[in-house]
Amino acid sequence: MDRKELLTIIEGVLFAMGDSVEPDKIASALEVDTEEVINACDELQRKYEDDHRGIRILKLEGAYQMCTSSEIYEYLIKIAKQPKKYALTDVLLETLSIIAYKQPVTRAEIEKIRGVDCSHAVSKLVEYQLVEEIGRLDAPGKPMLFGTTEEFLRSFGVTSLDELPALNPVQVEEFKNEAEAEANHMTVDI
Question: pTM of the entire structure?
Answer without folding.
Answer: 0.49
